[in-house]
Specification:
By secondary structure, the chain is α+β, with helices and mostly antiparallel strands. The chain has helices spanning about 25-35, 40-45, 50-60, 85-105, 105-115; strands at about 15, 20, 70, 80. Strand 1 (about 15) and strand 2 (about 20) form a beta hairpin.
């Protein structure tokens, strides 16, 4: 839900120097929640399974509780889902993101956009 244009606004929480959650990881969580699978989320986002898995692993290590849980097995036995904590964390992130985007539509944001030098 970032604002794109002359300025880009997005929300990112860091754990040290590593992103704990940001727009990309939120999209991964949305895709896992929608598809019920890490591999399907990767296909949906046009990302490799390895890349998605690394993002999920990073998410699970950044927070005090797991964000995504996986079930081993083929077909209907396997899959992935957001934990209750993961759902709450994502909802909180989306709420903060929406409030920041709404705040960025004010006069201060407009002033900053107008103050940008044109690209050459």
């Amino acid at each position: 839900m970032a604002i794109d244009g002359p300025l880009k606004v997005n929300v990112q929480f860091l754990r040290g120097t590593e992103p704990a959650i940001g727009p990309g990881k939120a999209l991964v969580l949305d895709a896992i929640g929608r598809t019920g699978s890490i591999s399907a989320a990767g296909r949906d986002l046009r990302m490799s399974y390895r890349r998605i898995w690394l993002l999920v692993d990073s998410l699970n290590h950044a927070w005090t509780q797991p964000v995504v849980e996986t079930r081993v097995g083929g077909g209907k036995a396997g899959g992935a889902q957001l934990t209750a904590f993961g759902e709450q964390m994502l909802a909180s992130y989306r709420d903060i993101e929406a409030r920041m985007v709404a705040a960025a539509k004010g006069a201060d944001f407009d002033w900053l956009v107008d103050a940008l030098k044109p690209e050459s």
